[in-house]
Amino acid sequence: MVMPFLSLLFDKQKLELTKPVFSLSATWAIAFFNYQVSQTIVQQGKVQALLLVCVVVSVVFFFKNLFLYASKYVMSNIRNGVSAIYATKLSKLPIIARLFLERKRLPDDPFNG
User: Fold this and answer.
1) CA-to-CA distance for 76 and 73, rounded, in angstroms?
2) Count of alpha carbons within 13 Å of 38, Cβ hemisphere only?
3) Which distant-in-sequence residues (6+ apart) come within 8 Å of 40 by Cβ?
4) Is residue 50 part of a domain?
5) Three-class SS string for the chain?
6) CA-CA distance, 6 to 49, in Å (whole number)?
7) What Å distances lie between residue 53 and 5, 43, 67, 72, CA to CA?
8) What range defines the domain where residue 93 resides?
9) How far apart are CA 10 and CA 55, in angstroms?
């Protein structure tokens, strides 16, 4: 994902000086960011454009980790809640049904052949 922007910085690709027409797609987003990097190169120089690319990559990395942490934090509560619900339901079953369910989980059960 960073390679197209770096190719703009190191003169491997032509600068994109026309603003792309909006469409809700990934190609538009890449073309728009190429346009922004090209404008930054023209107006402020390559060092500032490289700084822009580094800041964008850092912000995206931060938000990726933030949302990954938040999803694991929320999902752990959900998993524990589901486990507790099934544990209470299992404890309310008669003893014969509980023994049958526990026996189904064993891989080397002699009764299931």
Assistant:
1) 5
2) 18
3) 48, 49, 52
4) yes
5) CCHHHHHHHCCCCCCCCCCCCCCCCHHHHHHHHHHHHHHHHHHHCHHHHHHHHHHHHHHHHHHHHHHHHHHHHHHHHHHHHHHHHHHHHHHHCCHHHHHHHHHHHCCCCCCCC
6) 9
7) 7, 15, 21, 29
8) 3-105
9) 18
Domain count, the chain: 1
The whole-angstrom separation of Cα 107 and Cα 73 is: 32
pLDDT tens figures, 47-89: 898 898 889 889 999 999 999 999 988 888 787 777 777 777 7
Give the mean pLDDT of the chain. Answer: 80
Dihedral sign (CA 88, 90, 93, 95): negative
Encoding tokens for residue 86?
């099934």
- Asked, for residue 112, whether it belongs to a domain, the answer is no
Q: Tokens 């960073």 — which residue?
A: 2
